[in-house]
Fold:
Amino acid sequence: MLLHLPLAELEVGHHLYWQIGNLNIHGQVFLSSWIVIGALLAVVVLGTRKMERDPRGVQNLLEFLWDYLRDLARDQIGEKVYRDWLPFIGTLFLFIFVSNWGGALIPWRIVHLPSGELGAPTADINTTVAMALLVSLAFFYAGLSNKGLKFFEYYVEPTPIMLPFKIIEEFTKPLSLSFRLFGNILADELAVAVLASLVPLLVPLPVMLLGLFTSAIQALIFATLAAFYIGEAVHEEAH
Amino acid sequence: MHSWLLLAEAATPKGGLFDLDATLPLMAVQVVVLTFVLNALFFRPVGKAVEDREGYISTSRAQAKEKLAQAERLEAELKAQLLDARKQSVAVIQQAEEEVDRLFREALAVAQSEANSVREKARGEVDAEKAKAFSGIDAQAEKLSSLIVDRLLAA
Structure:
């Protein structure tokens, strides 16, 4: 699928295929994800190397992030079990955030791949669906491990009429989660690429800034919704 | 140049925007692994540091409050003691003044009475001497007069 523009070519839907056994995987997604994960881990390792009671340098940033994520998880999941889910919610947020910003800020075009091009890992549908399905799994795991079979009462509350809607919701949740993130990031990358191909200087900058903003917002939305779903699963009804 | 990236170009699938394949489960595994790695490297140590600090702050706050209360109690106690001491000192000064006054009056009274008695005695003595002198003069005058009379008569 090639988008033909007067000045430059824009590639969409081209992938760098790696084959493992009979399976095809998108190499460019993994390459860029390893780079952003590497950057994330580098910051984390740098900041936690020498923890002090009076935080210094990167430790400040990490503590701010931790505090922010704790508040997010605690608000959505509740005081009782948020500790179990903080790493998962926090990882989703951090991974999506560094992926989105990495996709926007790292000059991927320097590297030429034989096929496809590097970009935000979250601009690939596989990544977002994978994370959305993990959220669904976490939803069921959290509900079942906290309430046992009583968890399924969730589907008939407050009234059994809700049953079909709640079942449909289980399918729409991962669908909306994955497509929201995928669509936003891909659209942002395309908008920037199209503008940059038309007017290479200055004009794409506002769109890039807007892209950074939406990227951050999307990470927050994904993490908040994931926490909200898990919070729904572990929520205790006040009977 | 980048042929090492192309592990198998032979049977390349068609591709596309919604091309779901083995990337999905592998990415899921990667995210789960990343969750555990970040839990060990980030969430646990940073959480421990932050919560340790929160604990440290709350205990030092409580300690400081306790110390402040203690200081206030001590201050009140010392103020009460000071007030007491002031009152006592005023009382002592008053007492001492009264004592001095009393002693002075006593001494004055004693001295006055003594002076009086000495004066009385002196006056008595003077009177007696006077009386004695007068009586001596009288006797001598009588003797002299009788002597004069005798002489006149004898002449």
Observations:
- DSSP finds one helix and no strands in chain B.
- Chain B has a mean pLDDT of 89.
